[in-house]
């Protein structure tokens, strides 16, 4: 393995018969290094390759974890925004519902007051009018009675018989 700045190492198995490994090193140019057969691979080369693979895998895992964390943060922000909007909408609807309830309650009170006024008016028209007519009829002296009364009843000693009957 040559070069200290290796960007990527790919291990490819060409043929199972030839047992030759090809390691592709990418820099400015691609180099193909022909290695010894599989049985004769040195421990140093294997260890270097293993370290390189572990480093690359750690790098990829870290990138994936960063992307996952970033997406989680974005999702949390979106959820918080949605919750804020929901709370705002709930508050608006609560205010509207309260306003509608107040209007409804006020309308009910107005209708109840109108009904009470109508009942009072009807009482005045029918019940009180009958009482008034009785009072008026009993208090009112008929002019025919006054004319037909003899004079001896006028000194308030004795009531006239027609007045007596009306008073009953």
Automatic annotation (TrEMBL):
Origin superkingdom: Eukaryota
Keyword annotations from UniProtKB, A to Z: Coiled coil
Coiled coil: 54-128
Coiled coil as UniProt keyword: yes
Name by which UniProt lists this protein: Uncharacterized protein
């Amino acid at each position: 393995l040559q070069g200290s700045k290796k960007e990527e190492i790919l291990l490819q198995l060409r043929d199972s018969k030839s047992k030759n490994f090809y390691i592709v090193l990418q820099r400015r140019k691609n180099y193909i290094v022909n290695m010894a057969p599989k049985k004769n691979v040195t421990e140093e080369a294997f260890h270097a390759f293993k370290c390189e693979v572990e480093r690359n895998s750690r790098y990829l895992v870290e990138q994936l974890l960063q992307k996952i964390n970033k997406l989680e943060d974005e999702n949390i922000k979106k959820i918080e925004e949605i919750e804020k909007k929901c709370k705002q909408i709930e508050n608006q609807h609560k205010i509207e519902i309260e306003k509608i309830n107040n209007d409804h309650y006020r309308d009910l009170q107005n209708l109840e007051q109108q009904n009470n006024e109508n009942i009072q008016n009807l009482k005045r028209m029918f019940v009180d009018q009958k009482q008034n007519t009785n009072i008026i009829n009993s208090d009112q002296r008929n002019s025919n009675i006054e004319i037909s009364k003899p004079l001896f009843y006028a000194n308030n000693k004795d009531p006239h018989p027609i007045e007596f009957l009306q008073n009953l």
